[in-house]
Structure formats: C-alpha cells, structure tokens
Write a structure and sequence with these properties.
The chain has 22 helices and seven strands. By secondary structure, the protein is mainly alpha-helical. The longest helix is centred in the N-terminal third of the chain and has 26 residues.
C-alpha cells in the first residue's frame, strides 16, 4: 500500500499547486467576502445577507481566521484545507476497507481513483461548497457499499457519518446522495436496520444539531430572510427540458461502462449498486435545485464515474475500452469546468479610476463584483453580494396569474433590496459602482432605473456620474465627491 499512498500524495500535491493560483471563483469569492464581514462583527440575516443558509459562510471561517493569523490569502488557505480534507476522507475509507478485510488490490485502486476524482477531476469546482460536501460524504457512501457486501467497516464509520451530516447541512439536497444507497439497502434486506447504522445515526445527529443552532442563533435569518429567499429565489429554475439531458447522459454512460468494465457487478445486487445509487441521488439533487449550474452536478458526475472505475478489473481491460473511459471522464470533467464569463474585463478600467476602490454592484449576477473586488485589492462596500432576490421578484411579478397578496409580497422583497442598497450607499460610501444591464443574464434590464425608482436612492445616486458603458454590458459610475475628473 505504500506505493499507492505515494501516488495519492502526488495527486493531492499536484492539485494543491495547480489550484492555488486559479481556485478563486465568483461564488467562493463572495462567501469569503461575506465571511470577512462576519469576522468584523456583522451578523448574518441582520448586517450581512447571503442567499444560502449560514453554514455556507461559516464553512470558510477556519480559512479566513488562519489567513488573518498567517498573512496568507484566504483562497490559498482554502486550497490547503480542502487538500487536507481529501486526505482525511481517503484515510477513513481505507481504514474501513482494511477493517472489512478487502483485498489489497481493491484498496489500492479505490484510494487512487478517489484521489483523482477528489483532487483533479473537480477543476473549476475545486473549493466550492459542493466539492467540500461531496468529499465529506464519500466515506459514508463507501461504508454503505462495504455493508452492502455484508462486511463490517469498524468504528471509523462514525467519522464518516459525522462528515456526511456536515455535508447535508451544507447542501440539504445532497441528502439524496447518501439517502438512496441506504434506502436501497433497507429494501434489499427488507429491514429498517440499514437506516439506523452508527454512521446514519451520527449523520442525523449532526443535521438535527445544525437545525437547532439555526433556530437558536440565526432566528433573524430563518424568520425574515429565508422566507424571501423561498419566495423569490427558489422558484427561479430551468425547465426540465434543459435540466434532464445531462444527468440522463451521464447516468447512461455510467451504466454502460459498468457493464463493460465490471460485468460481474452489473446487477441489482452487485457491489457497484450503492455507488450508482449515489450518482442517481446526485442527478436528483441537480434536477431539484433546478439552476443548471455546473457545480451543482458535481455529485452526479463524481459518483457516476466512480461506480464503474472502482469495480474495473485492470487485468482484463482492453485498450479501446480504457481509451473510451478516459475520454468520457475528460468530457464530463470539461463540462464541470465550463466557465461562463458574462462580463468584459474591468480590472484595468476600475484601477484607472481609483486605487483600492470601495466597490459595489447593482444587478443580480454575482460574477460582476466577485472575484473582481479581491483581484484589484478593493473593499466590498455592500452587505450583500448581489440583488438576486429583487431580480427573482421582478421576474415572478410578470406572471399574470399571481394573486394580489403574492404581488404585494414580491413588492416587499423588491423594496427590501432597495433599502439594503440604500444602506450600502450611505454606510459603505462606495466610490465605484458597477451596474448590470441585464436581468438574470438574458433579458435587457435597466438596473439603474430600478434603483432610481426609489426617491432616496435617486438622491444618493445623484452624487455619482457614469464614466463608461463597457460593451453595453456594464455601466461604471464614480462618486464625484471622492474621485476627481480624469
């Protein structure tokens, strides 16, 4: 096994070196910025507003705290900590496999394949919440697969359960990934015992504990902000025609490769079934979230690839099959790595106006301001990263079947977003404002007119002048009181 662990270490080190300069993306940058505001004394749901539940922000608090202690950039600490997490997950799975007395060759294949899927395969998804959550829940799936074979994983299963509970708390939709394999186990055994294993109980305890913490410490989020998210953000989703093709193709490819790579496991009772069930759970999670964003498909893709690869018999593989499997993996990985860049380069334009600017955006796309503000060493002057609730409410208001009470509720959400923007202008004193020109990326929309519909906002914005309209996509405003004429 020593040689296998050397390979694993090389894979993790490669990922570490590759990801450090490129890991920062819009969602991660936004959560890091919000986390910094919480560290500075802000309270989620009161002073700092994030669409996702509080754990999304607190997940990165260790990295932010270590960054302040060491002077390193938070994103570098994120890469290091995620690499440590991956190593820990691999150790837990190997200890469970050793306790179950799995063959050495099988253990070697498992840790090498999973190291690759953890570290190299995610590419642009690396460090995002879904990546962290999927790595955390993989030991649970592995232990479920061990129990599926009638073997015992030992006490390390409890660690896997705790990690899976954390993963489900990060993204509740991912409960389907760990839930389907154990439900299949219960159906197969015609018993509820698979639902009450030590790891399942540990996972449930973490989820229940997290729920209690939300009620006690984040009541403002639950009672005020979360209902608005449910009303204006959750309904924003692609239609099924746009969502279903990708998971269908990935699951079908997984089943086909499983049939070729491991025909002995190509049956309901086969050893690969729990892994394939986890992939189906990932597909269901992707469809239920309904956004179609690449990172929401990571669980689907990783477990769909793991199911056949973990059960392949290398000695009997033919070269064409190996090439096809590699090509499929590269293709799916490239789909995860697709980066939508809806905005033109803005760094040089902003730095020409102000060094270390105080920046906010008016619009619904998080990528307009993030990671831009961190890349130019600026300061985020707002208490939320985006006006996405206003965008959702504006779009939903176009439905002619809405009742008057529903319209009133949506109007209240739009007014809430305007009040927050007003507070950002008055308290954050930004000297540069970036204004989007589209609603939810696709529809032309005058966000500046939306803001100026409020008299107080119009008065605050009167201190700003537009200096450039970049490609008809972004309008740049500067504060006449802090930036001299160019």
């Amino acid at each position: 096994m020593t040689q296998s662990w050397i390979i694993v270490a090389a894979i993790l080190l490669t990922a570490l070196l590759v990801q450090i300069p490129v890991v920062l993306n819009a969602d991660l940058a936004c959560l890091l910025t919000e986390g910094e505001k919480v560290l500075d004394g802000g309270k989620l749901g009161v002073d700092v507003f994030e669409l996702n539940p509080p754990l999304s922000v607190y997940l990165y608090m260790p990295a932010l705290t270590l960054a302040r202690m060491t002077g390193l950039a938070p994103e570098i600490i994120v890469v290091i900590l995620v690499t440590i997490e991956m190593g820990g997950a691999l150790v837990v799975m190997d200890r469970a496999a050793a306790t179950a007395k799995l063959e050495t060759e099988e253990r070697r294949l498992a840790i090498c394949v999973l190291a690759f899927l953890f570290a190299i395969f995610p590419s642009a998804v690396f460090g995002q919440r879904e990546h962290i959550a999927v790595v955390a829940m993989t030991p649970f799936v592995a232990i479920t697969a061990i129990r599926w074979r009638g073997l015992a994983p030992g006490p390390v299963a409890i660690l896997a359960g705790l990690a899976a509970g954390l993963a489900m708390s990060i993204k509740p939709y991912l409960a389907l990934v760990v839930g389907l394999p154990i439900i299949l186990g219960a159906v197969r055994q015609r018993s509820v015992r698979p639902l009450f294993t030590p790891e399942a109980c540990a996972a449930a305890a973490v989820v229940i504990g997290y729920g209690a913490l939300l009620v006690v410490f984040f009541s403002d989020y639950l009672l005020t902000y979360a209902p608005m998210v449910t009303a204006a953000y959750v309904p924003l989703r692609m239609d099924l025609g746009g969502l279903l093709p990708f998971p269908i193709i990935v699951i079908a490819a997984s089943i086909a490769f499983l049939r070729v790579l491991a025909p002995q496991d190509f049956r309901m009772a086969g050893d690969a079934t729990p892994w394939l069930a986890a992939a189906v759970g990932g597909a269901a999670s992707f469809v239920l979230q309904g956004k179609g964003w690449t990172y929401t498909a990571f669980a689907l893709c990783m477990f769909a690839i793991a199911a056949p690869l973990l059960h392949a018999r290398m000695r009997t593989l033919r070269v064409p099959v190996m090439i096809a499997a590699l090509a499929a993996t590269v293709y799916i990985g490239s789909c995860l790595s697709l980066q939508v860049r809806p905005f033109p380069p803005l760094e040089g334009r902003i730095l020409a106006l102000a060094k270390h600017p105080r920046l906010i955006t008016i619009g619904d796309h998080v990528a307009l301001g993030h990671p831009l503000v961190r890349q130019i060493d600026g300061t985020w002057a707002g208490n939320s990263c985006v006006q996405l609730l206003a965008a959702g409410a504006t779009l939903l208001r176009k439905n002619p079947q809405l009742t008057e009470s529903e319209r009133t509720k949506l109007d209240g959400i739009i007014n809430f977003e305007r009040r927050q923007l007003l507070a950002d202008l008055r308290e954050g004193r930004p000297n540069v404002i970036l204004v989007d020109t589209h609603l939810l990326t696709l529809t032309p929309f005058d966000w500046l007119a939306w803001a100026e519909a409020d008299p107080e906002l119009r008065a605050e914005l009167s201190h700003y002048r537009e200096v450039e309209d970049v490609d008809g996509r972004v309008r740049i405003l500067v504060d006449n009181r802090s930036i001299a004429e160019r």
